[in-house]
């Protein structure tokens, strides 16, 4: 097959896909105090973006600015191409915002509560009834449609509030601690609901400090601390970028407890000696020993072949190895490493 080179050269290039959310040098001051200090990040369309940081890191302030509830002191925030400072009305048409603490009207039924917000959003009457039915089915509250809001559990109220955020069919969901106060079952239900919303094409920002859940849920992540944005990007990329070394863990059988001259079980002492200076181990790394578990751990940065040779050497020495595993750093390890830095990492 031949190519029409002239047509190829004359054709317009494919337009670059722009991020759906752009935060540029965002700063928020309260007097001399900077709650947010030159924060910049982007979120891809269709992503679930975990906005992670300890209490007081600036997460809620940033989300309130994105939701047009606070004005930035400096910087720019674009959502769906609209500027939160100059085009607040357009921004509100493309977002759904769920705060950490939200009010509900206890003397309304579930259906009345959603109907009130649908009317406030200008949803036409003919479409409203079918929309509310769909939303109740989505958040699994159809059987509670006639129940008063005050009778709902915390988890049900969270799902109802999420349904309320969806009445205008937003492209972007901004959720501040959506799993706060939920029991494990309710958290699981919320996580599955958010995955379903992603499959429906929603772009979701979640602020949280519950890292294990975010690791399973999010496709992208941003880490903030003391008002600074420290690191961000796809979850796997962030973990890879800030990982140093994996840890090799070796556990021996606890049967037979002969001690060496310093009171260390003899087999543990022998294994620790064999590990020293093995190819693949981090230079200068000393094995750490947990005597009560008969466990040794050491930093490892080598290949699979070097790992195999270490195991063979231990077995050839007659050591009773019952566990031999390489533990990769997880998101929580990365978070702790990054937030222990005193300066932004970029």
Q: Write the H/E string, N to C.
A: HEEEHEEHEHHHEHEHEEHEHEEHEH
SSE class = alpha/beta
How much of the sequence is in beta strands? 15-25%
* Main sheet record: 6 strands, mixed
Ends distance = 47 Å
Helix content: 25-40%
What's the pLDDT, averaged over the residues?
A: 84
Number of strands: 14
| Count of alpha/pi helices | 12
The spatial strand order of the largest sheet comes to 6-7-8-3-9-10
> Uncertain segments of ≥5 residues (pLDDT<50)?
1-17, 342-346
How would you describe the oligomerization state of the chains in this entry? single chain
**Gyration radius from CA atoms, angstroms:** 27 Å
Principal-axes geometry comes out as elongated
Provide a descriptive summary of the structure in words.
By secondary structure, this protein is α/β, with parallel strands linked by helices. The protein has helices at residues 5-10, 59-66, 88-94, 110-120, 125-138, 154-165, 184-199, 211-217, 235-242, 266-275, 304-316, 331-339, and strands spanning 21-30, 33-43, 48-52, 74-79, 82-83, 95-98, 172-176, 203-208, 220-225, 228-234, 246-252, 288-290, 295-300, 321-327. A 6-stranded mixed beta sheet has the order 6-7-8-3-9-10, with helices on both faces. A 4-stranded antiparallel beta sheet has the order 2-1-4-5, with helices on one face. A hairpin with a 2-residue loop joins strand 1 (21-30) and strand 2. Helix 4 crosses helix 5 (125-138) and helix 9 packs across helix 12 (331-339). The chain is elongated.
Please describe the structure with a list of short key phrases separated by commas or semicolons.
disordered C terminus, 12 helices, elongated, about 350 residues, single chain, alpha/beta, 6-stranded mixed sheet, 4-stranded antiparallel sheet
């Amino acid at each position: 097959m031949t190519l029409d080179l002239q047509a190829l050269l004359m054709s317009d290039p494919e337009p670059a896909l722009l991020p759906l959310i752009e935060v540029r040098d965002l700063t928020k001051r309260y007097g001399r105090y900077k709650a947010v200090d030159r924060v910049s990040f982007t979120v891809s369309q269709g992503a679930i973006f975990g906005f992670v940081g300890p209490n007081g890191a600036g997460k809620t302030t940033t989300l309130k600015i994105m939701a047009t509830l606070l004005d930035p002191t400096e910087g720019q925030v674009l959502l769906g191409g609209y500027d939160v400072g100059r085009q607040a009305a357009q921004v509100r048409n493309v977002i759904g915002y769920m705060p950490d603490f939200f009010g509900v009207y206890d003397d309304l039924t579930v259906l009345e509560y959603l109907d009130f917000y649908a009317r406030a959003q200008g949803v036409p009457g003919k479409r409203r009834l079918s929309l509310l039915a769909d939303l109740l089915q989505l958040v699994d509250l159809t059987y509670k449609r006639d129940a008063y809001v005050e009778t709902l559990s915390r988890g049900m109220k969270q799902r109802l509030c999420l349904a309320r955020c969806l009445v205008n069919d937003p492209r972007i969901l901004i959720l501040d601690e959506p799993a706060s106060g939920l029991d494990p079952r309710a958290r699981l239900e919320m996580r599955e609901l958010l995955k379903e919303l992603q499959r429906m094409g929603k772009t979701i920002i979640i602020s949280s400090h519950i890292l294990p859940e975010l690791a399973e849920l999010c496709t992208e992540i941003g880490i903030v601390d003391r008002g600074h944005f420290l690191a961000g990007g796809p979850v796997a990329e962030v973990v890879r970028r800030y990982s140093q070394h994996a840890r090799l863990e070796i556990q021996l059988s606890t049967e037979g407890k002969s001690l060496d001259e310093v009171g260390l079980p003899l087999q543990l002492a022998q294994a620790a000696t064999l590990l020293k200076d093995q190819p693949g181990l981090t230079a200068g790394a000393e094995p750490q020993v947990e005597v009560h578990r008969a466990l040794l751990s050491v930093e490892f940065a080598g290949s699979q072949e070097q790992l195999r040779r270490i195991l063979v050497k231990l077995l050839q020495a007659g050591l009773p190895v019952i566990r031999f595993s390489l533990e990769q750093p997880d998101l929580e390890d990365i978070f702790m490493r990054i937030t222990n830095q005193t300066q932004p990492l970029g």
